[in-house]
Amino acid sequence: MLEVTDLAVSYGPIHAVKSISFTLGEGEIVSIIGANGAGKTSTLFGIMGIVRSRGSVRLRGEELRRKSSTEPTAKGMVLCPENRRIFPGLTVEENLRLGTFVRGNFSEMVKQVYSLFPILRERTRQLAGSLSGGEQQMLAVGRALVASPEVLLLDEPSLGLAPVLVDEMFRVLTNLRDRMSILLVEQNATKALTISDRAHVMQNGRIVHSGEAGAMLRDDKLRKAYLGM
């Protein structure tokens, strides 16, 4: 579904991502894990064309030009960004409708979102800024899902959530794997590896280790060296 080759992202003299390569197969969940500043978010931004980048990004075998961040979205690759970035002065429904600005059928996809996050159905007319942190995170993911992604890029979906909500979010992500491929950026390495097929560890802008997620969870040396576990 997604093939990234020699992706590099720089901010002036700072090389945030240094020629990394990886793939994401159909129906897979692949995680990118690592500490703050490792280059994880910059990787997603480079893939989407939000920041200038070098290298090749191919979606279903088609090279993306990434001159505009709307092009990947229109072709089926959707980003759910870190820190939610919802519109607090708009209602839950209005935020969800904005998710279909480039792609997606609202009346069809919103039913799936409400089935995954029933609390959002109860908050349809409520201003997004008045939601709890967990509800705002559900709304952010829901807004990405109404665009009917074939590839979903998720940046720190568990950030700031209470443990019970973290469990619920990862349960939802597991249920999505039969509908789309997911590239997951996540600091909660244990949760990410538990639901992933494969994973890559980033450090200082490079991929320093890749492997099958279950094996990485069982590798004590790897966990201590890179994952703080």
Write the layout of secondary structure elements.
Layout (H helix, E strand, L loop, with lengths): L1 E10 L2 E11 L4 E5 L6 H9 L4 E7 L2 E2 L6 H5 L2 E4 L11 H7 L7 H11 L1 H5 L10 H13 L5 E5 L7 H14 L4 E5 L3 H7 L2 E6 L2 E7 H6 L1 H8 L2
Parallel strand pairs: 3-8, 3-9, 6-7, 7-8
Antiparallel strand pairs: 1-2, 1-4, 4-5, 9-10
Helix pairs in contact: 3-6
How would you sum up this structure, described in words?
By secondary structure, the protein is α/β, with parallel strands linked by helices. It has helices at residues 40-48, 70-74, 92-98, 106-116, 118-122, 133-145, 163-176, 189-195, 213-218, 220-227; strands at 2-11, 14-24, 29-33, 53-59, 62-63, 77-80, 151-155, 181-185, 198-203, 206-212. The strands form two sheets. Strands 6-7-8-3-9-10 form a six-stranded mixed sheet, with helices on both faces. Helix 7 links the parallel strand 7 (151-155) and strand 8 (181-185). Helix 3 runs parallel beside helix 6 (133-145). The longest helix is centred in the last third of the chain and has 14 residues, at 163-176. The protein is globular and about 45 Å long. The model has no long low-confidence stretch (mean pLDDT 91).
